[in-house]
Design a protein that fits this description.
The structure is a single chain. By secondary structure, the protein is α/β, with parallel strands linked by helices. It contains seven helices and seven strands, in the order H-H-H-E-H-E-H-E-E-H-E-H-E-E.
Length: 218
């Protein structure tokens, strides 16, 4: 098991590869989050990944890989946030952004609430609700998901949550050709961006989309 200093060095090297400049405090917050994730995972089964170094790569650095595309947003919603990935990570990177994590699993929302308390994340808001019925009383610049099972289903849930001109971001593994075809009638797909996650050889992509120019968002 890697030491704290080894994890800190690996995180710093990953940030360098991603060309992300984070303060010492932000890096410390990421490492505390990683420690909490490992601790709570033993009882709550938040993720199938058990090894802390693998968590650093597949959860922290994977979430950080989308950060460069989110910086212009004033608020962001993570649907199916789970343990707060990528939303907690983005809240740490962008303390001036209002970030919301929505999940229907009470164990996962309790974990996110504990993270808010431990890290003093005043810009992060936890919602325990189903995505199709949640009353959030606001709309968002970006609605994001990570590993949502169906892109079409995610688009359907995300569209009513967007401000006019808002962006849908879907983090995926392999190039999702069939999912893109299925969703093409629901939204305008703007790009599919290959992501490079430090220390990870697996494929990662970010789909960006907006409301269809032929449809009106309620």
């Amino acid at each position: 098991m890697p030491s704290e200093s080894e994890l800190a060095l690996r995180l710093q090297q990953g940030l360098d590869q991603l060309q992300l400049a984070l303060s010492a405090q932000q890096q410390a917050q990421l490492l505390v989050y990683l420690s909490l994730l490992q601790k709570w995972n033993k009882a709550y089964n938040l993720t199938a990944v058990r090894d802390i170094d693998e968590m650093l790569v597949k959860h922290i650095l994977d979430s950080l890989s989308v950060a460069p595309f989110c910086g212009a947003a004033t608020n962001l919603l993570d649907i199916g946030a789970g343990a707060g990935l990528p939303s907690v990570i983005l809240a740490i990177v962008y303390p001036g952004m209002q970030v919301s994590g929505l999940d229907s699993n009470i164990k996962k929302t309790r974990f996110m609430q504990q993270v808010v308390y431990e890290l003093k994340l005043t810009n992060f808001h936890v919602f325990h609700a189903r995505a199709d019925t949640a009353d959030l009383s606001t709309t968002f610049d970006i609605v994001i998901s990570r590993a949502f099972s169906s892109f079409s289903d995610f688009v359907t849930l995300a569209l009513p949550r967007l401000v006019p001109g808002g962006q849908i971001y879907a983090m995926k593994g392999r190039y999702p050709e069939s999912e893109l075809a299925e969703a093409s009638s629901l939204c305008d797909i703007n790009s599919v961006i290959p992501l490079s996650v430090p220390y990870l050889s697996e494929e990662r992509h970010l789909i960006t989309a907006t409301a269809s120019s032929t449809q009106k968002v309620n």
